[in-house]
Amino acid sequence: MLRCVELAKNALGNTYPNPIVGSVIVFNNKIIGEGYHTKAGEPHAEVNAINSVKDKSLLSKSTIYVSLEPCSHYGKTPPCAELIAEKKIPNVVIGTIDTTAKVSGKGIKILENAGCKVIVGVLEKECRELNKRFFTFHEKKRPYVILKWAQTLDNLIDLERTPDMPIQPNWITDETCRTIVHKWRSEEQAIMVGTNTVAKDNPKLDVRNWSGEDPVRVLIDRNLRLPLSSNIYDNSIPTICFTEKEIPFIKEKVHFIKINFNKEILAQILIELHKLNIQSIIIEGGAMLLNSFIKEKMWDEARIFYGNKFFGKGIVAPKISGTVKQESNINGNILKILYS
After folding, report:
1. Which one of 48, 113, 155, 184 has the fewest CB atoms closer than 10 angstroms to its CB?
2. 101 and 129 in contact (C-beta within 8 Å)?
3. For the chain, give me the number of helices (H) and strands (E)?
4. pTM for this structure?
5. Which of the residues are catalytic?
């Protein structure tokens, strides 16, 4: 099952709206086939694992391991549970149940009705963790929210800006850390910033230092005060802007959504993103936006870099408490990952 999890991680960021899934087939304590779901619309993990087995006659004497309950419905591909039954694989070991309404035990029922011996819940915690975005989206009806920022040794996230300062980021960490951030962006469906971040830094919010899909850009601009020349409006990446103003212009890849800024702003935004099938979002905004998510307790994970710099004066970093999941040293920069 650990191998299933390991395989599935290869596709992180590439399978939306589907979950990431790995599968391994074992005969006489030896792996004879393995596979993972690489992209939505393409064969699922179980199909790829079965296809990788050279001697198909061994399938009827084997055990198939899969990190998530095999699907039971027809989508872009046929049900994997039916394929396993058709191939007469006698033993099926499942990491965790798929709690979505389309599956939710139906795949297990198909297998049991076909005479398969089914074991459920092997490394369940690890398999749930693997698809934390998928499960949060379907169970909590909102995207999985990741907060990200870098702060100095004197707990600042930005210099005190003056009118004569250039519109560009004030870097706290190094190129390696920035590359890691671009990798993270490629793994999530969307990235969000506020008006002040765009006004001060004019970011592109892409994955130019990594390979993979650029996340959908999400902007909050209540009064539409940002200039159309901003990189976020360059029409190169799908972009969503939340505002209270009437929409004054149209761009092919820019989608404006009007919300009520006198009510729960973040709740409205997350509901709208859920409607757009966005399963995960990384928040790279300034202190105001990050603190809003922390105050409203609308976050799942926080990734914080502690750079080896002092700013002296500037914007104070958010204060957050959670369970430390990971801590590492990257070229003298400390990275902490917290769970809510």
Report:
1. 113
2. no
3. 10, 16
4. 0.92
5. 46
